């Protein structure tokens, strides 16, 4: 199977969670928009293509299938790429965790765009400072504490007792948060040793290490989900 991944060019965004799974498994895939431009996604988003209508990227084309939503894509890919245990219960557990990752991603995004996602950050800076303060003090430790507990229950190495796409997603979360909130993350280091260990082990996986060193891994920037504004980090 040759997979076609569709996501916006220039940012990692939500497409990166799918991309990490494809890279980790050594899957045969093409990052379509990066080769053909963002306009190649418009027929899908405007309903000119057959199949389900995606609300937004990322979406994956696998043969005749068109699958949108990051968690749904990974739920589909997990068994095929051997990135989830074979049991039904484990696969739904992975889906549950990935959806929790998606909830966290929304809250991360809203630290810098708390009022309107289509407006500039500079036009909502004061509200962003208040939102980011609550995020750093309440929501960040709550989500990271939950995932730390997940790892503890999973045997202290993996979310599901063996390597899965959830571990790759947790790596992406940790990496993005280190970029966006370096001071706050450093302050919380003692409270998340298992997440830090997982982050390092994922980065050291041969296929992931190769990917991270390649041009395919875009840098974090102030157009994506994880954005670094010094005034939103710990003072």
Written account of the structure:
The protein has 235 residues and is an alpha+beta fold. Helix content is 54%, strand content 6%. A 4-stranded mixed β-sheet has the order 2-1-3-4. Strand 3 and strand 4 form a beta hairpin. The chain is globular and about 50 Å long.
Summarize, please.
This protein is α+β, with helices and mostly antiparallel strands. It is built from ten helices and four strands, in the order βαβααββααααααα. It folds into two domains: 3-80, Glutaredoxin, CATH 3.40.30.10; 88-205, Up-down Bundle (Glutathione S-transferase Yfyf (Class Pi), Chain A, domain 2), CATH 1.20.1050.10.
Topology record:
Blueprint: E1 3-6, H1 15-25, E2 29-31, H2 32-36, H3 42-45, E3 59-62, E4 65-68, H4 70-80, H5 88-112, H6 125-153, H7 165-180, H8 182-187, H9 193-204, H10 206-212
Helix pairs in contact: 1-4, 1-7, 1-10, 4-5, 5-6, 5-7, 7-9
Key terms:
single chain; 235 residues; alpha+beta; Glutaredoxin; Glutathione S-transferase Yfyf (Class Pi), Chain A, domain 2; 2 domains; 10 helices; 4 strands; 6% strand; globular
């Amino acid at each position: 199977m040759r997979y076609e991944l569709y996501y916006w060019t220039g940012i990692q965004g939500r497409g990166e969670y799918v991309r990490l799974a494809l890279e980790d498994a050594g899957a045969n895939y093409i990052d379509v928009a990066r080769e053909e431009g963002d306009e190649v996604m418009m027929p899908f988003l405007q309903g000119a293509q057959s199949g389900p209508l995606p609300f937004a990227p990322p979406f994956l084309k696998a043969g005749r299938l068109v699958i949108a939503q990051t968690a749904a894509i990974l739920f589909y890919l997990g068994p095929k790429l051997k990135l989830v245990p074979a049991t039904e219960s484990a696969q739904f557990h992975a889906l549950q965790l990935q959806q929790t990752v998606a909830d966290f991603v929304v809250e991360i995004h809203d630290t810098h765009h708390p009022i309107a996602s289509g407006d500039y950050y500079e036009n909502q800076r004061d509200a962003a400072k208040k939102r980011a303060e609550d995020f750093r003090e309440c929501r960040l430790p709550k989500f990271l504490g939950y995932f730390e507990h997940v790892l503890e229950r999973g045997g202290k190495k993996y979310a599901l007792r063996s390597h899965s796409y959830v571990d790759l997603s947790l790596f992406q979360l940790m990496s993005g948060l280190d970029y966006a909130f370096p001071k706050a993350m450093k302050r919380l280091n003692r409270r998340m040793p298992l997440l830090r260990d997982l982050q390092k082990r994922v980065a050291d996986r041969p296929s992931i290490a190769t990917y991270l060193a390649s041009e395919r891994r875009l840098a974090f920037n102030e157009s994506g989900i994880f954005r670094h504004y010094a005034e939103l980090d710990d003072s």
